[in-house]
Amino acid sequence: MSAEYVCLTLIAARSFRAELFDYLSEQRDVVSGFTASDAAGHGPDVRLQTSAEQVKGHADEVLVRTILKAQDAAQLIEQLADVRFCMRQKVGQIDFLRLSAFDMAENNLQ
Fold it and tell me: Which regions of the chain are under pLDDT 50?
């Protein structure tokens, strides 16, 4: 039986890019690599944290995608939720990693 693979997409504030990259790079057992690009967050629930973002009218974000086993994706999301909770305790209620913005889709390259 072959493992089911998914594409995991994470979106975070660009100011947390280095921390997110470091965290994913440390997860060698489940994340073999990832692709990242800059993104712009739009919408009524997007927080514009800096004056530059307020002038531009969108939030500066980073979008990260990785292909991994579905079971590993679920584990990684759970771990990220724990990391997010711990970081929120240290920096207050800043929502720097919007896990609600992740998207999981089947990888048809089996």
Answer: 87-110
